[in-house]
Design brief:
Layout lengths: L1 H16 L3 H11 L7 E5 L5 H7 L7 E6 L2 H12 L5 E5 L12 E7 L8 H10 L1 E12 L7 H19 L3 H12 L4 H10 L2 E9 L4 E8 L1
Parallel strand pairs: 1-2, 1-4, 2-3, 4-5
Antiparallel strand pairs: 5-7, 6-7
């Protein structure tokens, strides 16, 4: 599915969020609390926007690895990186079995990818494993608002409008999947509990855009 939508992914993201997804990635990168020289892993990096945002924050001397299991997405990410001199490398990887040594990175982030994983607990365990002690996990994800009128608008937008946009982009199945994946994902508090169970501490989360977006962070013990 992600291979199929790769070429339209960035455009539809901008349409669906009115371009705000860039600002949300900036906020997530802020939460990583990076410094020059850090090594960072971007899990489920997609077309690379979060990786490139993270890379701006580790200069000089740092680097970012963007990992994803969709080669067409990675190809687009590499095209973006080729336009500049950001210290980022994009490579294939399975988020449930990360091909990296223990304690390799200072931070691990995932933007709009966590809800697509078949085993959330295992993914969090893997992100914690590759972090050095004191390293930080950051999760940027869509969530569900619980208060009207935004909850009503949210339901209309995700259940009706988003699949229609996917249909116009010739892949309605992929964008029907989007609201389904959000509904099955834990609440902000539920995700924080899973992060705690994975061995992270100092867990906190921020809800943005009236309850549509959540940014979580936690530190490896």
């Amino acid at each position: 599915m992600f291979d199929r939508v790769a070429r339209r992914y960035d455009l539809l993201n901008s349409v669906m969020t009115a371009g705000l997804h860039h600002r949300w990635r900036e906020r997530a990168a802020d939460r990583a609390e990076l410094k020059p020289g850090d090594a960072v892993l971007d899990v489920c990096c997609g077309t690379g926007d979060l990786s490139l945002e993270l890379a701006r924050r580790v200069l000089p001397g740092g680097h970012v690895v963007g990992s994803d299991f969709s080669e067409p997405m990675l190809d687009l990410a590499r095209e973006k990186a080729a336009d500049g001199d950001a210290p980022v490398r994009f490579e294939w990887g399975d988020a449930l079995d990360l091909p990296y040594d223990d304690e390799r990175f200072d931070a691990a982030a995932v933007g709009f990818g966590m809800r697509n994983l078949s085993d959330l607990d295992r993914a969090l365990d893997e992100m914690r494993r590759v972090l050095r002690p004191g390293g930080r996990v950051v999760v940027l994800e869509i969530t569900q608002p619980t208060r009207a009128p935004l909850s009503t608008f949210y339901s209309l937008w995700f259940d009706r409008i988003v699949p229609l946009l996917g249909h116009l982009g010739s892949d309605s199945d992929a964008y029907s999947y989007l609201p389904e994946s959000v509904r099955s994902f834990p609440s902000p508090r539920g995700l924080a509990e899973k992060m705690d169970a994975a061995g992270l501490t100092r867990i906190r989360w921020t809800v943005l855009a009236g309850g549509i977006i959540a940014i979580h962070s936690g530190v490896r013990r």
